[in-house]
Amino acid sequence: MIYADQKQGSKNEKDFGKLLYSAEYELQGKPDYIFKKRFGKGIVPVELKSGSIGDDPLPHRGDLLQLGAYFLILEDVYHVRPKFGRLVYKDYMFVVKNKKSLRKEVQRTTKEMREMLIYGVGKANPSFVTCRYCVCNGTVCAHSGTEIIGGKTNESSCREE
């Protein structure tokens, strides 16, 4: 293990728990663990999730994007492109390949997020697949089919342009 999000109690911990920053991609993060492969220079990020995956055949999209962001960060910080990473849920572990398509999706998503910070509005993509894990689903989102009685709704939340 070459990195852990929290200190583990050994003397060789100067970088453990530190925020990793990629100037190239303007991303920062703290993977739960980074392991160095026994042979060669390969590294493997591991992200532990508190929830379970249940019957879903794939990891949650946000978790995939998080691991994809770690792929980009680690490539910039350690100068080694991880070939894969692990998403560990309570009931299942996924081995996720570091594919170009995932890296591009992370870059596209972070670009959209930065634009939302500047302009204040994002595009909604309402569907069962994209909405089922959203914190706005069933609360303030106009697309969830749930009405809020009393109080105010968040006009910018989950709104289409």
Helix proportion: 25-40%
Strands of the largest sheet, in order across it? Answer: 1-4-5-6-7
Could you say which structural class the secondary elements and strand pairing correspond to?
alpha+beta
Q: Provide the domain count.
A: 2
Could you report the average pLDDT, rounded to the nearest whole number? Answer: 82
What is the general shape? globular
What's the alpha carbon Rg, rounded to whole Å?
18 Å
Count helical runs: 3
Cα(first) to Cα(last) distance is 46 Å
Total strands: 7
Low-confidence stretches: 146-161
Order of helices and strands: EEEEEHEEHH
**Major sheet summary line:** 5 strands, mixed
Query: What amount of the residues lies in strands?
Result: 15-25%
Short characterization:
By secondary structure, the chain is of the alpha+beta class. 26% of the residues lie in helices and 17% in strands.
What does this structure look like?
With 161 residues, this protein is of the alpha+beta class. The protein has two domains: 116 residues, no CATH class; 41 residues, no CATH class. 26% of the residues lie in helices and 17% in strands. It is built from three helices and seven strands. Strands 1-4-5-6-7 form a five-stranded mixed sheet, with helices on one face. The protein has a two-stranded antiparallel ribbon with strand order 2-3. Strand 2 and strand 3 form a beta hairpin. Helix 1 packs across helix 2. The longest helix has 20 residues. The radius of gyration is 18 Å and the shape is globular. It starts with a strand and ends in a 30-residue tail after the last helix. The C terminus is likely disordered.
